[in-house]
Design goal:
The protein is mainly beta and about 280 residues long. Helices cover about 10% and strands about 45% of the residues. The mean pLDDT is about 90.
């Protein structure tokens, strides 16, 4: 509903027992990144009631929780915000509203703070990889730095499936390549895992610049190939033993006298055979 008016009503009340302040951030909120705005409550003595804090204005592409609470007796809270890949770059005025029970709901606003929305510091290109369950592999990463930074940054590979691990790595503005050593378990789930990405945390001016989701790749885990079944050994064929040829015995050589006696014997046998026929 909209209505035009020519006068505005307001009321003068007693001072509320609390005020809110955004601690001015010293680092930007980057594309595909996240950040915590520190909100401080200044309480008058004796006021310990919980305070609800809201972030009503959000620059284009910037998202935030609907509200957070400063617990009773506490004086500060971290308000989480994040930026999409297409968040509008620029320096934006932001504030928070706070409400608490002061004989009824009372509202206060913080001062205006400046939120710097900026492009990511770098571009990561991750190669796909494949591995068998229980084995090791590598994921290779190329880094294109877009904005120099001082010191070092921590790089964590996230989105890995269960029972798959890799150590945290460290880079500088001069790092061009990374290699993640991937270790799997025999129980690591087989399949194509497409939601693997990096989180990079850079520390500047004592505050983190967090690239929450940068680069993306796929890790394929295969089940090991079945071991080949050993074929039973064939029984050795019995050796065929060649039969020995019979030894030919050379006929005994007869002497002259033995030959005469043999011939006489054969004649007598022939004569007996002839007489018996008669």
């Amino acid at each position: 509903w909209r209505r035009n008016v020519d006068r505005l009503a307001f009321a003068v009340i007693e001072e509320l027992p609390f005020t809110l302040e955004i601690v001015q951030p010293k680092t930007p909120l980057v594309h595909n990144g996240s950040k915590y705005l520190k909100v401080v409550a200044h309480r008058k003595e004796g006021f310990t009631t919980a305070i609800n804090v809201q972030f009503p204005f959000r620059p284009p592409g910037v998202n935030a929780s609907s509200s957070v609470n400063i617990p009773a007796g506490k004086n500060e809270v971290l308000y989480p915000i994040n930026a999409s890949a297409s968040a509008r770059v620029g320096k934006w005025p932001v504030y928070v509203l706070g409400s608490a029970n002061v004989n009824g709901t009372a509202w206060v606003a913080s001062q205006m703070a400046e939120l710097d929305v900026a492009p990511a510091y770098m571009v990561l290109t991750l190669e796909r990889s494949a591995v068998e369950q229980g084995q090791e592999t590598e994921i290779f990463c190329k880094i294109e730095n877009k904005r120099p930074f001082s010191g070092s940054a921590k790089v964590v590979l996230l989105g890995l499936p269960n029972k798959v691990t890799t150590p945290e790595l460290t880079i500088t503005k001069d790092t061009k390549e990374l290699v993640f050593k991937i270790t799997t378990d025999k129980a690591s789930p087989a399949g194509r895992h497409r939601n693997v990405f990096c989180r990079i945390t850079i520390t500047e001016n004592g505050e983190p610049v967090m690239h929450s989701r940068i680069g993306a790749t796929e890790l394929r885990i295969d089940k090991p190939l079945p071991m080949p079944v050993a074929k039973p050994k064939a029984k050795p064929k019995p050796k065929v033993v060649a039969k020995k040829a019979p030894v030919k015995v050379a006929p005994k050589r007869l002497t002259r006298l033995e030959k005469l006696r043999l011939e006489a014997k054969e004649r007598r046998e022939a004569e007996k055979a002839g007489s018996s026929k008669k």
